[in-house]
């Protein structure tokens, strides 16, 4: 097993105020060995979907199949899955060894010696051999996390389910565990569904990411696809940190330009022909905007917007510059060595190739940036740098 | 807030408050412990010392003969064994039912859950004396129709006590189950447990302090109960509470022996409480706080 098909999954909760749809007609296919990250804001349905896959929630309608076999109504214990919970869910009255062995005791006919061997192997893999006789209460958060992973790994399941497993760790440990989790998943090659609200985790860990909002699927794709080719304004704003900047504009299709109360940007003829709506939202990523204090020498003066610098955030390698455009806040990231002072008056350049356009009413993406979405090899990347 | 015209400094006021609260605590402690002191103290005094005209709170001739004579006046062991059987079986049955009931109230959302929960507590507000006669008649009718005797039998009084203990035990245990994260059971279910196995292997061990506290409460209530026992548990099943009452009615002059018997009857329960004190206190404090 390893391939998971989700067809029309709907999960509805009945409340005194009427039914609430936590997940709505979700269709999804996960390939064998794939690391898929479900991401979205709180209440978007990502954890509910995971729990439906685990069998911890009943499904209102739709079907879940593991390798073609319907498991929609199967109990969790009959699905051959392992799950890591946000709060680790280690059994407090058992030692780490007993915690790891519990699943094998309950779901296999292995002898005590065989179980012990497998526990030792999992403990070595997770580097927790010395902690095996400690109870969860005696362990730190990171150690508990390792025991929880050991408990999942030892089962050798067909599917790993992880519900925000790193969210209780501090930033440094989280970054370390992120890498270790990726290595572990690659080594084991087990299909993994990972739930997080942290878009950085989603971008860095997943082979593909599944973005959900209000119980509805927004986009499925590789991290770069979702970043550079967002399906809609929600995805564009959710993926990326600092997030994409948005400005409401009107398209003047006759004159070929985008109008904003404080600026005008030219619109190419080909793009103007594609547009079927004039109420648009202009999107531009912070790193795609450049700043200049000499507009007169800029090669594209008609794509410059006058701004005032409100705040700067030096991060070391980069500096986040917050600008004011007609009362709306715009974030721009510049090289950390570039000196930008708050209160300054600058021009920001919005390149046509990096610009995104969304339908203001539906949020649907109309135009996206032309950034490549295929990962290039190191040598290719070097050649790009040299050319630049 | 101290008023402006208050003549004492804040530190002095704090000290006075501390002193007053300690004084209050001491008064309550004396109030609670004095009957026990009086029981033990008088168990070592002669009848003359107890009923004589010169009362004393401290003078005793250490008359341990009361502890020898009492055995001929009261069948303490039989009464104690009856109480032990009735209270123990009541506790076991009540806990078995209450564990399942408390778990259901804690974990499941079902129609009318709130009303059923409230009515459980509501049963505790009805005075026992109101139910005594209907219960007695019910038992008699049961005997007349089914042929099973419930009055003056272990099963009858255990049934009565269980009926009264279960609602409170459910309510108490529900609080303990609420403090155990549901994700632990979910982890167990993913690990290969059925829902019932997850309850037995994960939830119940974690709720052990709460179960011990609830069990102890049920046991003590059943052990000390007088009203229903006085009507429905006479003859061979007479419990200690009724036995001691009969002793008082029958041998009113033998205060020393009565106090000695009371002291002896108290010791096993006191030992039991001391033995289980830690889990009980832990259970009582944990149950009150939802994590």
From TrEMBL, chain A:
Compartments annotated for it: namely:
Cell membrane
Principal localization reads membrane
Q: Identify the keywords attached in UniProt to this record, alphabetized.
A: ATP-binding, Cell membrane, Membrane, Nucleotide-binding, Translocase, Transport
Q: What class of enzyme is it?
A: translocase
Q: Which PROSITE patterns match?
A: ABC_TRANSPORTER_1, ABC_TRANSPORTER_2
Q: Where is the composition biased (Basic and acidic residues)?
A: 362-371
According to the UniProt entry, its GO molecular function terms are:
ABC-type transporter activity; ATP binding; ATP hydrolysis activity
List the SUPFAM superfamilies: MOP-like, P-loop containing nucleoside triphosphate hydrolases
Query: For this protein, what reaction is catalysed?
Result: D-xylose(out) + ATP + H2O = D-xylose(in) + ADP + phosphate + H(+); L-arabinose(out) + ATP + H2O = L-arabinose(in) + ADP + phosphate + H(+)
- Tell me, which GO biological process terms does this entry list? carbohydrate transport
UniProt-listed Pfam families = ABC_tran (PF00005), OB_MalK (PF17912)
Could you tell me which residue ranges the ABC transporter domain spans?
Answer: 4-239
Tell me how this protein sits in the membrane: Peripheral membrane protein
Q: Domain of life of the organism in this record?
A: Archaea
Entry EC number(s): 7.5.2.13
A cellular component annotation (GO) from this entry: ATP-binding cassette (ABC) transporter complex, substrate-binding subunit-containing
Q: Where is this region: Disordered?
A: 362-388
Family, per the entry?
Belongs to the ABC transporter superfamily. Carbohydrate uptake transporter-1 (CUT1) (TC 3.A.1.1) family.
| Subunit | The complex is composed of two ATP-binding proteins (XacJ and XacK), two transmembrane proteins (XacH and XacI) and a solute-binding protein (XacG).
Q: What's its job?
A: Part of the ABC transporter complex XacGHIJK involved in the uptake of xylose and arabinose. Responsible for energy coupling to the transport system.
Q: What is this protein called?
A: ABC-type D-xylose/L-arabinose transporter
Automatic annotation (TrEMBL), chain B:
Q: Per the record's keyword annotation, is rRNA-binding included, yes or no?
A: no
* PROSITE patterns xref list: ABC_TM1 (PS50928)
Membrane topology according to the record:
Multi-pass membrane protein
Q: Fetch the InterPro entries from UniProt.
A: BP-dep_ABC_trans_perm, MetI-like, MetI-like_sf
Q: Where are the transmembrane segments?
A: 16-38, 79-103, 115-137, 157-177, 198-223, 254-276
- Subcellular compartments: Cell membrane
- List the protein's name: Sugar ABC transporter permease
